[in-house]
Design brief:
Length: 116
């Protein structure tokens, strides 16, 4: 088996999933993440499924050096929300299927958007 090199990771995304019943806690977490991690880039607050994501969501984009700070913080402070975390290696399909972490419940994604 060929070993993948971590240097291929350009950054990370954490996608916080929510729905109508968890919109308020999701918004509160959005504000807390933005305040706690000013170097992270906060994405739009989507109240509909977007891209491969089956739930409403927003994205937190961050540099590889922030992984050890952001992910443990989310583990402890996600307030019961589910979070999908993946690297950005340039291979969208693998990054959204083989190279993933779920904090909380996992969900199947629509990987057909990565078909050529």
């Amino acid at each position: 088996m060929t070993e993948s090199r971590i240097e291929t990771i350009d950054g990370w995304h954490a996608h916080v999933y929510f729905d109508a019943s968890t919109r308020d806690p999701a918004r509160a977490l959005y504000d807390r993440v933005a305040a706690r991690f000013p170097d992270a880039e906060m994405g739009r607050f989507h109240e509909r499924p977007v891209g491969p994501h089956p739930m409403w969501s927003y994205q937190v984009a961050f540099a590889p050096g922030l992984l050890a700070d952001i992910v443990p913080w989310l583990v402890l402070n996600r307030d019961g929300l589910d979070v999908f975390v993946h690297p950005n290696t340039g291979n969208g399909r693998a990054d959204h299927s083989a190279h993933v972490m779920f904090l909380g419940k996992s969900y199947p994604l629509d990987l057909s958007i990565f078909d050529d």
